[in-house]
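Quick one: structure for this chain?
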Amino acid sequence: MNDSSADKDAQTAQPMFASQRKLYLRFAQGTFQNWRIALVVLSQVIFYGLPWLTWGDRQAFLLELATRKFYLFGLVLWPQDIIYLTALLIVSAYSLFLFTAVAGRLFCGFACPQTVYTEMLMWIERAIEGNRNARMKLDAAPWSANKIARKFAKHGLWLILAWWTGVTFVGYFTPIRDLVTVLPFGVSGWALFFILLYGGMVYFLAGWMREQVCKYMCPYARFQSVMIDRDTMVVTYDAARGEPRGARGRKADLKEMQLGHCIDCDLCVQVCPTGIDIRGGLQYECIGCAACIDVCDGVMKKMDYPLGLVRYTTENALASGYSRKEIWKRVFRPRTLLYTAILLGIIVAVTASLWTRNTLKVDVLRDRAMMAREASPGVIENVYRLRIINTEERAHQFVIEVAGLPEVEVGGLEQPIHIDGASARMVPLSVRFKLPRDGLDAGMYPIMFTVRTEDGKTLRREEKSTFMVPRN
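Got it. Here's what it folds into:
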């Protein structure tokens, strides 16, 4: 190869990776955008407001890791209630399976924290820098006092929002009223770390990276294909109706121009949070926000064409021309009905378990340093420790009883035992058993501890254990 041909090849060589272009999103107006705004407002009112609610003399919703107590309004959960956390994770997983099987990435487009915070930061950006065209002109313009002031104001408000979001997040694990009274310099190291971590994620992921998180970092985009099928409702472009696309006037004769309903305005691309062209078919980057549906319906209204060139539908419906009734009939197919049945079953079971939950918890621990001994002639004594947890938020007086062997009794304990509300107490005690005249074989014998309130009705818990009779 001569030098001239090598130079020519070098000039025409293409880079392996294209540089990422910045997206300047156009604000979409319509039904789905209104739903997104409503969900953003509702979710953030709950998120920012919930830690400030009180229940009696404490925070109503507090996941206090230091004391290992979770306060959920009138409910107090302890580490022994880990089964409810497991149930919550299972319910969340099945809900995700169900929503995805029915309507694709519905969670991503309307309720995902990345989507919510990106939307909030973009509201601030539009309020300060203007609409899409104004933002493009501002970024292209040379640096000036006006540009510096707008950029400084935008990022300043972003940082304030991110900081307060981090404070609110930590306020779910530390009493928020105590937290804000020591901000910013009196806060503990771990609390400050998580404030900066969560706030920094809001600022950088939602403010700077935006669609990159959805396209490259979120694993949900990668495995959604195994959770949907041809009867899943997804945002879809009707190519049969829209193609061939092309620009035209409002009164143009489509048959004469041999054009479809798509006027090739590219507005669907300009409003897409991930910058894809929905006309290229279903793509893993699509988060199902339906902004393209809103903007396309607006264009269809102006052109006096039927709505729904871009719409929520299924692949089978688009291919076979199903009616709306047929679409919904196929949406509720065996797969989604099974997910729904399992989800409802778990929710009912967890709700019933919480409703009938015994608020008294007892753990029986044998004293391994002193397994068994002869307290007096013919009397065998075993030593135990009972950890009694009163998860109710009012104090109780408890009585401990034991049964399972004849003439067995609790010794070395002054009763009743006082335990404050939402508190635990370790109670050491001995169990004494008088051997019968004919003796008793050495070994382990089952016994039953009963812990109850003095009235015997309010709270009651029974726990099994064993009593050791040593060899003579």
